[in-house]
Write a structure and sequence with these properties.
The protein is α+β, with helices and mostly antiparallel strands. It is built from 51 helices and 24 strands. Strand 11 and strand 12 form a beta hairpin. Helix 3 packs antiparallel against helix 11, helix 18 packs across helix 26 and helix 50 packs antiparallel against helix 51. The longest helix has about 35 residues. It is a multi-pass membrane protein. It is found in: Membrane. Belongs to the pecanex family. This is Pecanex-like protein.
Length: about 1400
Amino acid sequence: MGSQLVQTLRQGVWASLTGGWYHDPDQNTFNNSCHLYLWMFLLMLPLSLHLALPPTTMALSIYCTSVTIFFITIKMVNYRLHVMFDKGDVVPPSSLSDVIQGAENKSNASDSCLAAKLSADSAALDCRDLEYNEADLEHPSPQLTTADNSSSGIDVHSHPDENDPPDLNVDADGFLRIPSMFRKYGPGGRTHVRGLSMDSGKDAVLIADRSQNKQTTMTSSKSDLEAKEGQIPNESNFVEFVSLLESINSTRGANGIENPPEEVTHEEDRAMEEETSTQEKPSRKLYYKLKLFPGKWVNILYDRLALLALLDRNQDVVENIAVVFLAFLVAFLGFILLNHGCFKDIWVFQFCVVIASCQYSLLKVRKAFSASFHSPLDVFQGHNQIVAYSRAAYFCIFCGLIWILEQMLRRKDLPVSTVYGITIVLADALKFLRDILVGITYCFPITFLVGLFPQINTFMIYLLEQIDIHFFGGTAATGLHSAVYSIFRSLTALSLLYGFCFGALKEPWDEQHTPALFSGFCGLLVVLSYHLSGQSSDPTVLMSLIKSKLMPTLVDSEEEGEDSEDIKDPLPEKLMNSVKEILLSDLVVCSIAYILTFAITSSTVFLSLKVVLYALAGTVGFVTHYLVPQLRKHHPWLWISHPVLKSNEYSQFEPRDDAQLMWFERLYVGLLCFEKYVVYPAIILSALTNDGFSLSHRKNCDVLLMTVAGMKLLRASFCNPSFQFVTLIFTIVFFEFDCSRASETFLLDFFIMSIVFHKLSDLLHKLHFIMVYIAPWQIAWGSAFHAFAQPFAVPHSAMLLLQTFVTTLFYTPLSPFLGTFIPPGCDDNNLNSIFYEYLTRSLQHSLCGDLMLGRWGNYSSGDCFILASDYLNAFVHLIEIGNGLVTFQLRGLEFRGTYCQQREVEAITEGVEEDDACCCCEPGHLPHVLSCNAAFNLRWLAWEVTTTKYLLEGYSISENNAAIMLQVYDLRKLLITYYLKSIIYYLIHSLKLQTWIKDSSITEALVSYTKWHHIERDPAVFSVKIDEDYVHCLQGVTRASFCNVYLEWIQYCANKMEEPVDCDEDSPLVTLCYALSVLGRRSLGTASHNMSNSLESFLYGFNTLFKGDFRIATKDEWVFTDMDLLQKVVAPGVRMSLKLHQDHFTCLEETEEPAILYEAISNYKTSLVICHESDPAWRKAVLSSRDTLLTLRHMVDDGTDEYKIIMLYKRHLSFKVIKINKECVRGLWAGQQQELVFLRNRNPERGSIQNSKQALRNMINSSCDQPLGYPMYVSPLTTSYMGTHKQLRSIWGGPLSLDSIRTWLFSKWVRKDNLTSCNSGGNMEDVDCAGGSSSLSHNPNSITSQSLSLYQARPNRTSHANRQHAAGLAHQIFSTGERMLRMLNKCNI
């Protein structure tokens, strides 16, 4: 315990304070000394220069130049050494005897130093003389390095008089020979021999020369073993792996792992060798060539692991340049602040410590330090290189801001302004901000110790996302590329709008006349806001669509590669089609919107409609976002016991059809669209018109702010206006009645209040979560300690309240530690994860439409929901809410979760309608109203049931225990019978049947099966208990007994074929069927370990065949003539037999008839997917929405070993939709990061994951990514579009495009024109037209009138594709009909 505490303080606390430097006892003296001197140099250089030189540009230049040269030198040498190790240019040691002699005389402290010797041309000649011959390895070992007692080198100690170079070659037998210097002998001359499998497929044999009685030892440090144990040995580093595996084996043997007999007898001798290996001994050294110039090089006595222990590696040149630039920037900004006098007295030393820690982190970052005190991403993804840049990047950001503020404070003309009645002295505000930034810079060591700062990339995502949301009306960011893309498109649109607005407001204009340029600005503002609100922040799908249009050949080649793998995912193409529909729709909608906006803003209609618009927005918002959602909740206002507005499926037990569209859903969609596209655009355009008129007269420089506010409010209204009406009402009431004098303009007031209300909403969610979580009656009172612990928690509650306000201001989780971004993960390789993947696809199809229909209640970006059913429990996180799109992530929980999860599931599913209690008594409750206790308890929950019957397409799972179905021998015999009949069916229906029958090699191999007296007598395979054709007196199976049972079935299947096949008793077909039946049963016996009579062995063997793993005996190798005999005959027969065996329990007599059995197999072959869950075809079938699937699953859990027959049926699943407080989720996830990553509490039964019904703590924590949680499946970020929802599409008619408009016009007017043209005009034309029509109708070759009648009889509600196809067909019919009518008219004339 004490050593662990010291290690934590050393590697955690101290390393965090210094930027990564600490004394590591596991490293040698050279590495620790280098690290110490590096840190001291980086600390003392700025401190001494600042104290010794005046604060001039010269001192700044000296310091920056010194740091830059220092980092360039270190990084260049480090990079060149790693390149040298990658090339592996080894110098044989015999040509460098003088260097070896000098290395042998070195002390232990300097063993790891770089020994360099400049070699002349003569040395080069010696090295060329000593190169390996053609039998040697082509590539010498890039890591074959030695150093005495180094932290990462491998010492190969040989006898002093051995000077021969290593002889690495391949003998005549193709075995790799290991030289004597790498062999290990034990006492008595026995050699420890190991065989390693090489990548090339050759065996490696250690050939020991027993005649030489020379004992050699190979030692390696602990860091070598840990670093090398996971690598794969190859021909270039084979010798090193031999020595490593020797040491690894000795280490494992000491820990109780069983060693080979020869090693067990010499444990004491090996221990003595390891103890003496650290002493100075004459050793053979291997050097690397570091080429400096052509013909000149330096011989380096070092190795890669020692170099990695000394300095971090930067992979490429760009990364090295970035490190040098960051080091220069830290030096420049830090020293320039010292020159400006921002730091005084002892704080100068503290600031120099901060500078040294930032620069040192660019050279060496301890992995333990980075994983414990920076970000949980290091735990998920190993050592993250971004950690090395985070501290320096934060330093540059803060120091850059301080420098800018210092430059601004030097100005004497800083203004004093009044905003909302508050006088702001800009100089005082800047000084206050500068002091705060200086204080944060002082606290860098403590800040990084407790992990308050996330990684720099996470910080940039957060910063850009918040700027885009609060200032430009953005939605969300899903990554760094997404954040940069979102802010870039917002700034592009803003720059375009600012130009129009500035041009329109240059000159004052009359109140009764709005300039055309300003109307154009308003139209462009609406158009750009609408378009940006309907686009996802992730440009991946859009880029894929552009790529498919600009480079179709490249896309086609990629699709061909996917088709070759036979696993093509339909989702990308579906997403691209949705984006294409949106873009085509925006082309039409934006054009219409621009024209309407330009026309309306050119008039003076907005000058007198402000009050009407405000009242309309408040009324529509109240009805749409408060009244209707409350009436649809499971417990409206948490008082009523059932929903007032019920869906059609509310009273159904198992709904079988899609959810019906209710009248109140149509009303909700209509009001929502009216609010989004009419009311709020009108309010904002009215405010723009009024504010533009006042700005044009006051000549204020508020054009940019006006443009920003207009774009932000319009985009927010288009995306999600759920809370806009509350913000609007509060803005009007506050600035019209409470603080009318403090008001600026309505547009600016509305803009500021939208930001304030966003923060207040977060604060309300945080306070609600805290109150629910710490309420005394919610605590599980386990001891008397709680009785007096609660009052003492008051100071902590006060601190928690302050923490709540601070985290609300910065939009961070409640936990102050490690509040970083949790990246999307992947599934847990659990077989049940495919169901959650299919659930994700179903949500992708319908989620956006269901949200717009109000089936999930009110929602906003960041909301969290739980979908709970009988066995599926999924956590859905809404990431981005756009105009007609929703980006979400689904996390699947365990089917049968832990005890804590089950308790929380029960809390979700149990009803409170039967609760009659009121305080301590049970007086009952009014009809349709909850009791007082039930209503009180519902208000103290961090979650709420919003929908009780939410239908979603999924798979219903039914499982049967295979052991029960095959317990009796007769049932196993029936399975074997179906197995053989299925093989016969697939054989006869194969297209290669005639080829197999006529194949001479197969015919020769099956000669023995043609003889009637041939008997198969394998007792481990054939048994009277399970084989229908077993002959007891002969103790085996014969051709006659086989025909007696299966000939009728063979002949029936053969007669069903179109081409006649000879199927009598002596036919080749019967011989092949008999041979395959023997092969199938022998494969089952082999897979069952020749113990088919045992139920467990039988199930194991059958499951092995079901997976497609066939072990073919020597007698049956004829089947390898064509592998389709196994893959398309025997393997499908195994799987089909399982389904037939399952059916016989419901219709035993029917399956005995050949006709019924044949029809059943034929139907199952096309309609049913039968394969193992690990087969890619299983996943493809599930994602392709196949109706029925069957599989056999081997389940091993908690000591149980069972085989389950799993049957999947596609149907509509019913879920409960539970909305969770999103701050509860963020707080619990951040708390888990703090506890596991920062505090290192790895207890699987820790209190923070125990069940808490009021907060669903266990379900929330288990849904987080590993290692914080244990979800079964975590989906990628998936976007759902409005256009894929059928019911919503039926309301608004689908995306508006030029094709849809043309189709609609053609179907409505062109048809009428063609029909009325026959009834108008002169009498002769009427007669001819009628005659022509009648002749066409009676002509059997004409299809005009028939097709026209069919077209008229089509239902009105068709999809867009059907309407387009029908329009095209009608166009062709009409054109053909017109030509024929004209010909007939000419003939009649």
